[in-house]
Design goal:
The relative contact order is 0.10. The protein has 214 residues and is mainly α. The longest helix is centred in the last third of the chain and has 32 residues. Helix 4 packs antiparallel against helix 6. It is globular and about 55 Å long.
Length: 214
Amino acid sequence: MTPTTTRDRLVPAAIILFSLVPVLGGALRLTELGGGAEITPDNARFFASPVPVVVHAVTVSVYLVLGAFQFAPGFRRRRPGWHRVAGRVLVLCGLLGALSGLWMTVFYPKPADVGALLTGFRLVFGTAWVMFLVLGFTAIRRRDVAGHRAWMVRGFAIGLGAGTQALTMGPWIAAFGPLDQLTKAVLMLFSWLFNLAVAELVLRRATVRKGQNR
């Protein structure tokens, strides 16, 4: 088995595994809305305006699972047509996921553990997600493959933030109990910044490998 073949299997599998929490969370929310679950203070906002959360849950789940296979270099080379079609779907799903998330941030009533600081962080990173996707799409239209790859990887890092947030907030809650507004905001900020740092590291290593192979 070649290194590329191994990477084609392990990287998408790792990303999908990492995405399980947000994907399952979205599925549970859809089941709750579709199954007539009891309305509580925690979910009342979703029942009052279900369209944004349904759009967000569906598009983000598709974005994360389908996007995982864009990180398999051998798979991309063997199926360039699939890569292009999937890329268009990913841009659409990413934009809908980001915009629906921004809509919910602005218009949904805030839970007790969400304050102005976290709201601001969500607006910043949601807007950045939209910008990165648009920049990635316009780059490939100019045939700037390197720029396209860089912006799409950064956008995916933000989209995958919910997976990292589950890994940071879960242990904290288990150790210290429910999150207050400040702690939740800081942990979510850390998760987004961590993902973006990893994205930059991946891009830098790719650039170094490309230079070494010339």
